[in-house]
Write a structure and sequence with these properties.
Layout (H helix, E strand, L loop, with lengths): L18 E3 L2 E4 L2 E4 L3 H4 L11 H11 L18 H13 L4 E5 L2 H18 L6 E5 L8 H6 L18 E4 L13 E7 L12 H14 L2 E5 L23 E4 L11 E5 L1 H6 L16 H16 L6 H15 L1 E6 L2 E5 L5 E4 L6 H12 L1
Parallel strand pairs: 5-6, 5-7, 7-8, 8-9
Antiparallel strand pairs: 1-2, 2-3, 4-10, 9-10, 11-12, 12-13
Helix pairs in contact: 2-8, 3-8, 9-10
The structure holds pyridoxal-5'-phosphate.
Length: 367
């Protein structure tokens, strides 16, 4: 069976949706692990055993339908309580970062950069430049592709041109080589998984700390891939020797079933914005009730079931198995780059990995 209508080329042949189990598909009766947990989103597994979908469904049914912030149009409309509750929860977890929501990681990153620009504008700066790293990935919109997409996208601009004011540099950059006074922000992933997943060195983060402090360059950490618990903390960058001014989250933060991304910003950014600041970003689905409710529930589930406490046991077991049946090329938190006969393969070990998961992982690795 082929379909022709979805995206600009003929669809791959498809069959009925495959049977699936908690952590992957069942192929002719054999259990197969989805190593990426579907692009890193289904970090608690596929089968929704904590009932996120039912929770969201109840919230959606019992609240005024809501997708956007209510503008000056009608004073009788207002945001639902849960939008504020999620923001407050995030504020407490992160020790004081405020947040705004979007639907994709790309959108959250665009918002982060625009916010950095707003910060400089209200500080009276004219800074235009964005610094990012070669071999990084930040999304597929024009701005985010321009910042970094070379290791995952082939030709994102077609006949168009990337955004101009971007300096793409090597991670071994020399601070002296750049005019930092003209740089608004430095955008960097928590760990660049599209680039062999080599974690950044302590010296690298020290250089960022230095330009943050000395030149007021805002540090934006793109935590979209590693946030949600993959490093043992809800905030993926938490154990890195840096504190960003702005960071973004997405993917796993809703358990995977509903879309939401978040841009979080610190007090320094908040204080620079005037009381009458107008945020020209987002709107139609900025407060998607389903995404907000699922992100809220996901956080509650992590707490209620103490899932992050499982991190050390899971990581130990994963290291045991990968070292015995394969070779670990690189790792960051629960994400492992593994040598296989078909080249390097990325595995994300779910927080809910159980004995069956590890048994099947062993079987899958043995081929
Ligand atoms: C590090 C990182 N940043 C940004 C994005 C873009 O997110 P989205 O695909 O939701 O726009 C991704 C998605 O893979 C990502 O891994």
């Amino acid at each position: 069976m082929t379909f022709k209508g979805l995206i600009p080329f003929e669809q791959k042949k498809v069959s009925l949706p495959p049977q699936y189990w908690k952590f992957g598909i069942i192929n002719n009766g054999s259990y197969v692990i989805d190593p990426l947990l579907h692009w890193g989103c289904f970090f608690l597994g596929y089968t929704d055993e904590y009932g996120i979908v039912d929770y969201v469904s109840n919230i959606v049914k019992s609240n005024k339908p809501e997708i956007a912030e209510n503008i000056q149009y009608d004073e009788n409309y207002y945001l639902n309580h849960i939008s504020f509750k999620l923001a407050d929860k995030l504020y407490n977890i992160t020790n004081g970062y405020k947040s705004f929501y979007a639907l994709s990681g790309s959108d959250a990153n665009e918002g982060a950069i625009k916010l950095a620009s707003a910060y400089h504008k209200y500080k009276g700066n004219t800074r235009k430049k964005i610094v990012s790293l070669l071999n990084s990935y930040h999304g597929s919109t024009m701005l985010t592709s321009s910042i970094g997409s070379d290791n995952l996208l082939n030709d994102p601009f077609y006949t168009l041109e990337p955004y101009q004011n971007i300096l793409r540099i090597r991670r071994e950059f020399d601070i002296k080589d750049i005019e930092w006074d003209d740089v608004a922000c430095f955008v960097v992933e928590t760990c660049s998984y599209g680039n062999g997943m080599v974690p950044f060195s302590k010296e690298f983060w020290e250089k960022l700390q230095y330009i943050q402090k000395e030149y007021d360059v805002l540090i934006i950490i793109d935590d979209i891939f590693f946030g949600g618990g993959k490093t043992g903390n809800y905030v993926g960058w938490k154990h890195l020797p840096i504190t960003p001014d702005i960071f973004t989250m997405g993917k796993a933060i809703t358990g995977g079933y509903f879309p939401l991304s978040i841009t979080l910003y610190n007090q320094k950014v908040d204080e620079a914005l005037p009381k009458d600041f107008i945020w020209d970003h987002g709107y139609t689905y900025s407060f998607s009730l389903s995404g907000i409710a699922s992100a809220y529930r996901y956080l509650e589930i992590l707490e209620e079931h103490k899932l992050l406490d499982r991190y050390n046991i899971i990581i130990k077991e994963a290291i045991n198995i990968f070292s015995k049946y394969s070779k670990i090329l690189n790792s960051f938190g629960l994400t492992f780059l593994i040598e296989t006969s078909r080249g390097p393969k990325l595995y994300i070990i779910p927080l809910t990995a159980d004995d069956k998961y590890f048994e099947i992982l062993r079987n899958n690795l043995c081929g």
